[in-house]
What does this fold into?
Amino acid sequence: MSMKPATRLLLLAAVTICGVIAASPASAYAVICRSGQWDVDSRDDAQLRIAFGTSFCTIRRFSFRSHAEDFARSNGMLPGRACSCR
It folds into this structure.
């Protein structure tokens, strides 16, 4: 049972696309308020919960660190400045 070359190529393309999508995190960086201060962090929410318990909240996630930093800067959420999760 051998596949036709076109079918094999299509299957290979589908597997490659799925691999690229799985390997590239959609939201790798988060603007967070942790322990009363703004920060940009690369951990997912589960890892943040382990690190900070309930003393953090995620404001927004981004694919690129520079986008997260730009968002934080343009909204006055500079790292180290005071914040609240309320």
